[in-house]
Amino acid sequence: MRTIEEVEKHLRSLHLHGMAQTLQARCLQAQQNGSMSVLDVLTELVQDELDCRQSRLIERRFHSSGLDERKIIQDFDWSYHYNDI
Q1: What's this model's pTM, rounded to 2 decimal places?
Q2: Is residue 57 in some structural domain?
Q3: Residues near 5 by Cβ (< 8 Å), separated by ≥ 6?
């Protein structure tokens, strides 16, 4: 029988770091929720990997942009547009 640590090691060697990070939590979730199928667990793990890769991509792009601070569109002050009307 494989251990979680062995599977995490294999995932990391395949560069599936997002899956490796959440494997233990997803296994516990599956144990607690007896109605989860293997496909459900696998789907969640794959989504975790996709989310991790998206986050790393955003980090790399921000770092290479040279910007000093992060802003999101909700934080932007749009009021100056309305003062001219």
Answers
A1: 0.75
A2: yes
A3: none
